[in-house]
Amino acid sequence: MIDLNAAAMRYSSILVIGGTGFIGSHLVAQLAASGRRVIVPTRHVSRSRMFSVLPKVEVVEANVHDAAVLSKLMRGVDAVINLVGILHSGRGPAGSKYGPAFATAHVELPKKIVAACLANGVQRYLHMSALGALPQGASMYLRSKADGEAAAFAPGLQTTVFRPSVVFGPEDKFLNLFATLQKFFPVMPLGGADARFQPVFVGDVARAFVNALEHPATFGKTYELAGPKIYTLKELVELAGAMGGHPRPVLALPPPLARLQALMLEWMPGGPLMSRDNLDSMKQDNIASGPIAPELGITPTALEAVAPQYLGRKI
Ligand SMILES: NC(=O)c1ccc[n+]([C@@H]2O[C@H](COP(=O)([O-])OP(=O)(O)OC[C@H]3O[C@@H](n4cnc5c(N)ncnc54)[C@H](OP(=O)(O)O)[C@@H]3O)[C@@H](O)[C@H]2O)c1
User: Fold this and answer.
1) What is the pLDDT of residues 231-249, one digit of tens each?
2) Is the pTM of this model over 0.85?
3) Ligand 1 in contact with 130 (CB < 6 A)?
4) Torsional class of 261: left (φ above 0), alpha (ψ -120 to 50), beta (otherwise)
5) Position in ligand 1 atom list of the atom nearest CA 84
6) Were both Cys, which of 139, 142, 148, 273 would link to 110 (CB 3.0–4.6 Å)?
7) How far apart (Å, rounded) are the C-alpha atoms in residues 56 and 44?
8) Average pLDDT for residues 244-269, to the nearest whole number?
9) Which atom of ligand 1 is nearest to the CA of 25?
10) DSSP H or E segment with residue 180
11) Can you list the domains of the chain with their CATH numbers?
């Protein structure tokens, strides 16, 4: 663990783009608790009331895709963190690597942020990617995340990139979703059942960002973030069911049926629960190449130590 009090705080005013989401709310709380001023732009200020109790946090309604707005947000800021990410996008024109929504959120936005950092003299940039990001990866999500990573590095910028596996924690949309579904359905038909994941705790992901912020050894590096154990998707769904108090039989779907299921789920009202692109992501194992780098100062939290507490509330 890095002792922030031991060193003078070089980065005391932080712009966190994408800070209102699941991971962002934990990271913003940790940054504020470390005594920093945090600016959090959002598209919908009314949905970001969770920060109203944190006096060091300033939530502003802003269109971060507008270069002039970005420049304004960066005034007086020492470091920028970008957590913006989405899970679904329509397809792009034939031959394109990913759809327009992925291009906008994962590639064009990081380019604009980097340009604004350089134009406004902000040298420190922390960028959220995803484990398995690859220029020729199996899904639009992974390909667009890889191009976003490439955009995050620029001469004159001290960039750190993070690639977490799937992230768990009280407000996750992963274990919570599987636990809730098992409350209502007697069986769980599952695509990608054999895909392997190494879930990492949201508090550890946030801590990795906070610890890296002031740590020169992390400049110019890309870090994988993964938990202590590897699970198949089927095992995770079974764990979520058991921890949520409604264990159901999990039926692994063969690939054609899994694809049909994903296609149907894409048309669900209120946004897709799952898409064919999500299924494509699962063609690649989502596991780390080694333990978390020691300079990040993280001892990864076991899923079994945390998830029963919040999934158990669903009973
Ligand atoms: N959760 C995971 O398991 C996981 C795993 C690997 C990587 N990641 C990456 O970690 C990051 C954060 O994930 P999360 O789970 O915290 O996501 P989340 O809860 O969905 O939050 C997404 C954030 O991005 C912002 N955002 C979304 N679309 C945007 C757009 N088009 N333009 C501007 N802002 C937009 C949202 O801001 P508003 O307030 O404006 O809505 C929100 O603050 C993402 O980059 C994600 O890809 C997550």
Assistant:
1) 999 999 999 999 999 999 9
2) yes
3) yes
4) alpha
5) 24
6) 148
7) 19
8) 93
9) 16
10) helix 175-184
11) 13-167+200-226 (3.40.50.720)
